[in-house]
Amino acid sequence: MADIQAAVTGISYLREFTKWVQGLRADADVLTRTNEAQQKVGEVYDKLQELRAENLQLLETNRNLAERLRDADDWSSRRRHYQLVQSSGGAHVLQHDGQDGVAVHHACPACAEKRLLMPLQDVMLKNGIFRCPECKVGYPVERPSHRPNPQVSRGGGSWMSR
After folding, report:
1. Which entry of 33, 60, 80, 143 is 20 to 30 Å from 74 by CA?
2. pTM of the model
3. β-bridge partners, 138
């Protein structure tokens, strides 16, 4: 990029110099050659400007591709810790391997297709359903158990009356 800018600057000086020489000489032959030289310098200058614009466009494309590659690498490094498993409740879910200081957990396979790793949340029911907080899909991750369903108050007074 600096080389192109230096060439543009050099050509600009050369263009100005040919104009100066043209002003000094009134001789027809010198004037003709100076005009030809000025025309060629102008063509080179125009081509350098085209190359400069193309170079800027290529730099921008390169930056965008590098960013996309970085994002893909980040996703791959996160995704490699998850394996598709069949849980004890029968659902096919992603299971984290427990490495990198992260607890073993299950993630939504549907959201993983959208590049989201959403840990499934236990809804605390006997049927062992875990729900994705993003897409709201429920997965039978655990076998149905004998744990009691959470008690829901049905209006027998307020908590302050206890």
Report:
1. 60
2. 0.51
3. 131
